[in-house]
From TrEMBL:
<feature type="domain" description="CAAX prenyl protease 2/Lysostaphin resistance protein A-like">
    <location>
        <begin position="234"/>
        <end position="319"/>
    </location>
</feature>
<dbReference type="InterPro" id="IPR003675">
    <property type="entry name" value="Rce1/LyrA-like_dom"/>
</dbReference>
<keyword id="KW-0378">Hydrolase</keyword>
<dbReference type="GO" id="GO:0004175">
    <property type="term" value="F:endopeptidase activity"/>
</dbReference>
<dbReference type="GO" id="GO:0006508">
    <property type="term" value="P:proteolysis"/>
</dbReference>
<keyword id="KW-1133">Transmembrane helix</keyword>
<protein>
    <submittedName>
        <fullName>Putative CAAX amino terminal protease</fullName>
    </submittedName>
</protein>
<dbReference type="GO" id="GO:0080120">
    <property type="term" value="P:CAAX-box protein maturation"/>
</dbReference>
<feature type="transmembrane region" description="Helical">
    <location>
        <begin position="286"/>
        <end position="303"/>
    </location>
</feature>
<keyword id="KW-0645">Protease</keyword>
<feature type="transmembrane region" description="Helical">
    <location>
        <begin position="143"/>
        <end position="165"/>
    </location>
</feature>
<feature type="transmembrane region" description="Helical">
    <location>
        <begin position="185"/>
        <end position="212"/>
    </location>
</feature>
<feature type="transmembrane region" description="Helical">
    <location>
        <begin position="109"/>
        <end position="131"/>
    </location>
</feature>
<dbReference type="Pfam" id="PF02517">
    <property type="entry name" value="Rce1-like"/>
</dbReference>
<keyword id="KW-0812">Transmembrane</keyword>
<keyword id="KW-0472">Membrane</keyword>
Amino acid sequence: MGMDHATVVVVIRRQMLSVLGGLRWQPPYAKSIRYQLPATTPFYSFLRPNTNTLKYLPQRFNSRTCFNTYCKKIEEEQVTNNNTPFSHGFSALKEEFIPLESENLWTTLSLYLFILHIPFSFGGLSVVALLTGESFLDPQTKALSLLIIQILELSGALVLFKYNAKPQYEFTNFFTNNKLLNGRNWIVASVLGFGFLVFLIFLTSLLAETLFGSKPVNPILKEILLYSDISRVSCVLVLCIVTPLLEEVVYRGFLLTSLSSTMEWQQAVAISSIIFSAIHFSGENFLQLFIVGCVLGCSYCWTGNLNSNIAIHSLYNALTLIITYYS
């Protein structure tokens, strides 16, 4: 049965409207056309659309809504199919992840340092000695006091940064995997980051020992570890759980993420690592702390998840405790 070009166009248009608009009307001669045309012609593909394409189309939508839904689903499939570890660049920190506005960043960080970090870290034990009426604190009391002090500092930091953060920002964003970065496993990043960090610290320690001689272990830390089981457990809780969580939320979660919105991620990692190292007020450990900050910063930029940073930080501190205990 012969049909002119105009008739075929009308048939195709009505068939497309039937698919997109949920119409059930079909011309009586459409079936005959379908079997006359070979499966490879464009007309047949219009008359019998691909079911993979139509699975996203609602039963009854107007054409604009249907088209937008279809395009959105296709884009999501393309992102999933093209999702490789390097398809989005090295840094996973995007504009929507920024917790603090640039004008609030340095004010909030200054408040944290002068109201929380310095008073609690450098004056906390003095306050405990004053409250207990003892001029000298035994190692167990020191360990328990440090645990309470660190928990108070962590709580104060969370309240301070939450108050100054964007209203829509949640702390859980620091620990949420980006669905576009499923290829970046934070567990693998933790293992690789910890191994690389230990290697770098070993090299710098070897170089420092060659140039300046061996450095003794921290006598206060060793005394706490050897004093009692309670002091050991308290020390482990402070250095392997509370402190990593506190420092990673502040220096990587808020500081590094906010800096990355105003500069390249490499510059943001370097600046945040310098601040992280300087805040410890330890000149002899400045280089090692800077290296630790750089490795942790790169790990966070790669995964966009603080779980990897906390794991690396905790493992590194645990290794330090083991070396101190057995040295």
